[in-house]
User: What shape does this take?
Amino acid sequence: MEVVFLLAIAFFASVIGSICGVGGGVFMKPVLDMFSLVSVSTASFLSAMTVLAMTSYTTAKNLMSKNKVIAVHEVAPLALGAAMGGVAGKYLFEQIKELLPYADKIGAVQAVFLGVVALGALVYTFSKSRIKTRHVQSQAASVLIGLCLGIMSSFLGIGGGPIDLIVLLYFFSMDTKKAVQNSLFVILFSQAFSLVYMLLSGTVPEFEPLALIFMIIGGIVGGMCGRGISAKISNSTTDKLFIGLLALIVLISVYNFCKY
Assistant: This one.
């Protein structure tokens, strides 16, 4: 039953993540922490691998689509920075975990930062009509922004989530639908490099292989469903779903912080 529950979490998170461009990890990771089904480190790993599977599928389909919305030339430097930041974020996670007296106390640190990030994204989403956006063209600036994104996302174990989406909306003046698909592209790079780092550094936590398999299946199927739904809904509907997701994440983060 536990494996089925993990599959359900991965599926639902990936549906929402694919629609909103947040990868799914931003919902999956705090929910896994909330139910304490696995350790904090294992939850981060399972979430990251599920997001990697989902974004791989979704990005491949988007790149092969006739209506391409992924601006590869524009977001490639951002993705490169996010990939490097993903490695730095994993290293930071391991270092802070070592400093804490109890390993799972890192969950409290993650909950605080995730809650702040989600709340900030929520405020921006409500105010974005009054905020003048930028259009970053410098590749060096894009790499630097991506580096910061990767560090935060990897440390929190969420893949990218609302941080990537807000950055694309503000710094690159993308509309919501375009930002969603490009966000998943950036998340894919960040998660791929994070996995390589964990494998090479030997920091992959203990996990149940069957749980990982079921979550990856849930992630890919969820990505398929989310992509289909996303094609049929408007930017305003996507914004409303994004707002609802952020509000839920803030509440879960508060709960997780109190629990840890």
